[in-house]
Request: fold
Amino acid sequence: MQEYTRQIAYFYAYEQGRQEAAAGFVKAEVRSGRCRLGIHLNRLGRWEQGAGRVYIYFRQQGRSIGIYLGELEARNGVLEWQGVVDPEDIQEKGVHFSDTGGIWIRSPGTGDFVADWEDHPVDV
Reply:
């Protein structure tokens, strides 16, 4: 039987390092050697300076390290991103999906949005 994993995590807006309002969600589905990611982020704040860069992050020696995945796109009044990565070698960086902590969105002028797989607050 093929391996199948599905995770849903909720994004929170971070202002001045503090977790604030819920802002959306990310779905991750690992199946047949592929990891499909779908991000849905509510339009909070101003987005004139760009929608935001999407990173999947992992922790190493007490630091969060991001692997760039792409840019959010505005669709139907929300910000979205969809993509597929190799769960055994994300973006050819040697990182397994099972070693990641979640998704981090850096948005110029608006702040950070983080979805942690285990729903823990993150030190931005």
